Amino acid sequence: MTKLIKRSSKKAGLPPGTLVHIGEKLTEKTRITVVEYDGRGFEEKELQDLETCYLSSPEPTVTWVNVVGIQQVEVLEKVGSCFVVHPLALEDILNTEQRPKVEDYGEDLFLVVKLLSYNEKRDEIESEQISLILRPNTLLSFQEKEGDDFAAVKERLRAGKGRLRKMGADYLAYTLLDIVVDQYFVVLEKLGERIEVLEGKLLADTSTATLQKIQKLKKEMLLLRKWIWPLREVISSLERGEFPGIRESTRIYLRDVYDHAIQVMDSIEIYRDMLSGMVDIYLSSLNNRMSAVMKVLTLIATIFMPLTFLAGVYGMNFKHMPELDWPWAYPLVLILMAIIAILMLTLFRRKKWL
Question: 13-284 falls under which CATH superfamily?
C-alpha cells in the first residue's frame, strides 16, 4: 500500500537542484515518445537515444514529449539538457514525494499531480506521480510507469475527432488533468463499495480484523485528502488565469475539472465521517457485547448466591445438626435449592433482565 509518510533522507545536505531519484522503481527502462500534431496530421515516434537532441517540426504544431520511467537519473539529466528544463523542476520530477503543485519558471509552467488506480488483486490504492511542463506549443509529461491512462488521449489524437487536434498544448495539459481527476472517481467508487460491505458486516462481526479494515480505509482516505486538497488549489489557480500560458478558451474547461475536484473532496469528507462513525459503532457494539456478557455472569452469580449459602450451611459438618439425621434431608435441600433457582429466574424474566 502507498505509504502516508515516505523517507527522503537521501537528499539530506545536498544542494538545490541535485538529481536524486526518491521513490519506488516502477519500470526497468526509461521510454521517451514524441507526438506532433495539428489540425491536419498526427505523427508519433519513439526516441531511442538522446545523443542528438530532438528538434521539433518548424511548423506551428503541438509537440507532446512523454517520458515513462524516471528512475534512470542520467537519462532524465539528458532530457533536461535537451529540452532546457529548469534543474529545480528536474529535481521535483525525480522526487516522487511531491505534493500536487504548480510553479512558474518563466516560459515554463510546471505541474505535479498524483494519478491513482485501484489494484483489484491487492485490494488497495496505487499512486503514480505525473509531472507536466507546459510551454508554448509544447508539453513535456513524466510518468513513473507505463500505463493505459493516457493511451486514450493518443487514440483521440490519431482519430482526429473532437477539438483536441485543433487546440494548443494548454488544452492537452487540461485533457491529462481531466483524466487524473476522473480516476479519483473510479477509486472512490471502489472504496465506497468496500465501506458499504464493511458497514453491513459491522454489527455482526466485531472482531479485530473488522477494526483493522476500518483503519486501513481511514488511512486511504487520509492519502486521498492529502493529494486532492492541494490539487484543487492547483486547478483553481490555473482556471483563474494566474498563468499566461493558459488561454481563456482552455480556462473554461478547467472550471469543469475544478468542479469535479470539489465533488471528489466532498465525497472524501463524507466517507471519512462514515468511517469515524463506524469506529464509534464498533466500539459501542464491543461495549454492548461486553455488557451482555457481564449481565449474564452477574445473573448466574446472583442465582448461585443463595444456593452457595445453603451448601455452605450444610457443609459445616457440625455434630449436632438435626437435619443430618433426617432420611429425606438431602433430597429436600436439593429440591429447595431448585425452587429458589426457579423463583429467581422467574423474577428476572418478569423484570426483563433475561
Answer: CorA soluble domain-like (3.30.460.20)
